[in-house]
Write a structure and sequence with these properties.
- By secondary structure, the chain is α+β, with helices and mostly antiparallel strands.
- The protein is built from seven helices and 21 strands.
- The chain has two domains: 218 residues, Sulfite Oxidase, Chain A, domain 2, CATH 3.90.420.10; 123 residues, Immunoglobulin-like (Sandwich), CATH 2.60.40.
- A hairpin with a 2-residue loop joins β7 and β8.
- The longest helix has 20 residues.
- The mean pLDDT is 92.
- The chain binds cobalt (II) ion.
């Protein structure tokens, strides 16, 4: 009963769709008439020293949900996933979560101190770090609360709001293992307290094992300096772990033999269960996915025929191994194409060509990673975790496609 297309079918359906477009536009004004922008000289190259998007893309912006937090200072905004292509998030659309507002830090005055259980405490300026061997790596970052408003039921009609607390960029910086070698971290130094220079003094305890594995101090993303909202001049990168641990404006790393049990560890970032107990130290962002097209804000189904179902999948434990798509609320599953490159702890784009003939559908994506972990349903997550938590909701998500092509956020029970 599926309308998924093989390659040959997709080409035929695509040609039919293009023909319909030509026939439709013949009735409208001649699209080849001279336009204003073709009759006058445009601005010169000095007009815009730092480029900005076209004015016709002004709707592609980060948005917040005002009722979610008490004010917009300690708050979050969301990446407009439905409007993005590929797997890279442009720097200006990267979601932001601050605990004391966006700090404006002068790099000349900023220092990173590494101390505690070390042979030789050191203080680094930005220039000191940039002299060290650096690497560039693609990673996603996801807020632990991504999807958190959906735990009790479908809340927000748009994938910007259901899944937009995730972004993916290329970070450039120095491996923390290099810095730990320089300070001579002692063998009993099992934990690292990371602290930011913002008004919140945001801090988290991170296991040394993770620090030595793949953590970085980054000063650039997508080829340019970090933006202030992403921790300029330097931030911690903790691949695959929840975003709150990626301390921005990082100024201090203290090595100790046990976690600090900062307020955040013991109360804020725990997952409250049905029986009143709470899961602690839930750091890894498990395998998750979302269909970004069609989605409520970008229905896309403006005509019958060929359409591409497209979305993003990710796993904090490794690489996305595959994504299956259901058009009927999870009864039947069709493997999607992974667009690649497929990289560990990085967003992965998936696509499925299909032929839409106006039928009502419940579309879902279900990702699995290279550890064998399969993205669970809401029912499976709630059976184990209840509905009290706001964190770590990676449930299979459903979009309801209406016969008129509109798309609505729904949950199946
Ligand atoms: Co957690």
């Amino acid at each position: 009963m599926t309308n998924a297309l093989n390659r040959r079918g997709f080409l035929a359906a695509g040609a039919a769709s293009a023909g319909a477009l030509a026939a439709g536009s013949a009735k409208a004004a001649n699209p080849f008439e001279p336009k204003e922008w073709g009759q006058f000289l445009g601005a010169g190259v000095d007009d815009e020293p730092y480029g900005t998007p076209s004015e016709y893309e002004a709707h592609v912006i980060r948005r917040n949900v005002p009722w979610l937090t008490a004010d917009s200072v300690s708050s979050i905004n969301f990446t407009p996933l439905a409007d993005l292509e590929g797997f890279i998030t442009p720097n200006g659309l990267h979601f932001e979560r601050h605990h004391g507002g966006r700090a404006i830090v002068d790099p000349a005055e900023h220092r990173l101190m590494i101390h505690g259980l070390v042979d030789k405490p050191l203080v680094f300026s930005l220039d000191d770090l940039k002299r060290l061997p650096s690497i560039s790596r693609f990673y996603f970052i996801e807020c632990a609360a991504n999807g958190g408003m959906e735990w009790r039921g479908a809340q927000l009609n748009g994938c910007q709001f259901t899944h937009g607390m995730v972004s993916c960029v290329q970070y450039t910086g120095v491996k923390l293992s290099t810095l730990m070698e320089m300070v001579g971290a002692k063998p009993n130094g099992k934990w690292v307290l990371a602290e930011g220079a913002d008004a919140a003094g945001m801090n988290r305890s991170i296991p040394m094992e993770k620090i030595m594995d793949d953590c970085m101090i980054a000063w650039a993303q997508n080829g340019e300096a970090l933006r202030p909202g992403q921790g300029y001049p330097m931030r911690l990168v903790v691949p695959g772990f929840e975003g709150n641990m990626w301390v921005k404006w990082i100024r201090r790393l203290e090595i100790g033999d046990m976690p600090w049990f900062a307020r955040e560890e013991t109360s804020k970032y725990t997952d409250l269960l049905e029986d009143g107990r709470a899961r602690m130290f839930t750091w890894v962002q498990d395998c998750n996915s979302v269909i970004t097209r069609p989605s409520p804000e970008k229905p896309w189904l403006d005509r019958k025929g060929f359409h591409m179902i497209s979305g993003l999948a990710w796993s904090g434990r490794g690489s996305v191994k595959g994504v299956d798509i259901s058009l009927d609320g999870g009864n039947n599953w069709i493997p999607a194409d992974l667009e690649g490159p497929v990289m560990p702890k990085c967003l992965t784009r998936f696509n499925l060509p299909f032929d839409w003939q106006g039928q009502e559908m419940l579309i879902q994506s279900r990702a699995y990673d290279d550890t064998g972990y399969v993205q669970p349903t809401f029912a499976q997550n709630r059976a184990v975790r209840g509905v009290n938590s706001i964190y770590h909701n990676n449930s299979v998500h459903t979009w309801h496609i209406k016969p008129d092509g509109r798309v609505e956020n729904v949950q199946l029970v």
